[in-house]
Amino acid sequence: MSNRLALFDCDGTLIDGQAAICVSMEEAFRMSGRPAPERPAIRRIVGLSLFEALRVLAPGSSEAEQLVLVDHYKQAFRGLRSDGLLEEPLFDGIPALLAALDKAGWLLGVATGKSDRGLHSALEAHGLRHLFVTLQTADRHPSKPHPGMAEAAMAEAGATPETTVMIGDTSYDIGMARNAGTSAIGVAWGYHGADELRQAGAHQIAARPQDILSILEDMA
């Protein structure tokens, strides 16, 4: 029998990292001598891999210019961490949700546009790393909505599309789930609105983390 896997996005779903992302992106553009995008535009790309995000935010730039922006973003983000200025709080209710799912026998995983280093650092900072059996990042997979991260997570967890639910806040998360053949729950506290998540193919929308438990029961 296949295991049940609850696969979470990170930024905008588990963690509220928008301040750090926006500040680092603004600094990356400043270091590159470019005008920074508006913050609503930056928030829209959260969930994509960094390179794909910068293709959106710097249209018309060459691949070499995008790689420079990627490097500058990483420098800025690392600078926040080393200076003790990195803030990535968990959304209210997330620890209780994860504990309840774990107790109910769900395996937990993450599929995120973060780097390996960024994801491990964030989970360890909140004492959550031990709860997850599979961690998939943009370092090793194509950007969402490509199904690669979800497929790798299912393989590691011994789950199937029929026993896996992707939980995320953007249309990229929902698109990845649909491309991988899994169920998809959109969350209303992140970067894309509920209507956009439904249009992308979310089967249900959770208004609060605690709603996910009842949604999963209804979907069983």
What does this structure look like?
- This protein starts with a strand and ends with a helix.
- The chain is built from ten helices and six strands, in the order βαααααβαβαβαβαβα.
- The protein is globular and about 55 Å long.
- Helices cover about 45% and strands about 15% of the residues.
- The model has no long low-confidence stretch (mean pLDDT about 95).
- It folds into two domains: about 5-15 and about 90-220, HAD superfamily/HAD-like (Rossmann fold, 3-Layer(aba) Sandwich); about 20-80, DNA polymerase, domain 1 (Orthogonal Bundle), CATH 1.10.150.
- Strands 3-2-1-4-5-6 form a six-stranded parallel beta sheet, with helices on both faces.
- The chain is an alpha/beta fold.
Key features of this structure:
Rossmann fold; 6-stranded parallel β-sheet; 10 helices; single chain; 220 residues; alpha/beta; DNA polymerase, domain 1
